Amino acid sequence: MRRFGEAIVHGQTYRPRPGAYAIIHDRRDVLLTLQLDPLPEYQLPGGGIDHGETPQQALHREVFEETGWKVAVQRRIGVYQRFCYMPEYDLWAQKICQVYVCRAILQVSEPPEPHHRAIWARPGTALDMLDGAGDRHMLQRWLAGH
User: Is residue 138 very low, low, confident or very high in pLDDT (cuts 50, 70, 90)?
Assistant: First the structure.
């Protein structure tokens, strides 16, 4: 599995943290989330899969929490991993990021999760905006086949 992001801290134990993330489109633009805290960061919407959830259930929940949108899952396009410290959980994690392509269906509300904003952008602009190398790689991969 391809790895992106920070170097692995040798001697550090990492806990696997599977997650589901989305490239959401409306046939023209791509929906990103801007996470404002602790530092502003543009990301693909998504997050961790909770105990008892399927990846698709987690995807729907996380996308709604971070964007306020309902989506239709079209297909999984890949997976990557990154190793990082998650201060909000006081956890050293091996994030296993499953990425899905989704079609935007309906904006139900503003993002209910604090410190998140839903941002629509042209695909090329979204590629430049994304802060994570893994997110950029997956969006680029989707764009190449789209």
Answer: very high
Q: What CA–CA distances, in Å, run from 124 to 9, 107, 114?
A: 33, 23, 27
pLDDT at 120 over 90: yes
**pLDDT (tens digit, 9 = 90+) per residue, 27-81?**
899 999 999 987 899 999 999 999 999 999 999 999 999 999 999 999 999 999 9
Taking Cα atoms as reference points, which of 81, 73, 94 lies closest to residue 134? 81
Lookup: tokens for 16: 């696997």
Write the secondary structure of the chain as one string of H (helix), E (strand) and C (coil): CCECCCCCCCCCCCEEEEEEEEEEECCCCEEEEEECCCCCEEECCEEECCCCCCHHHHHHHHHHHHHCEEEEEEEEEEEEEEEEEECCCCEEEEEEEEEEEEEEEEECCCCCCCCEEEEEECHHHHHHHCCCHHHHHHHHHHHHHC
Pair of tokens at residue 79: 């997976």
The pLDDT of residue 78 is 97
Burial label for 90, CB within 10 Å (0-12, 13-18, 19+), is exposed
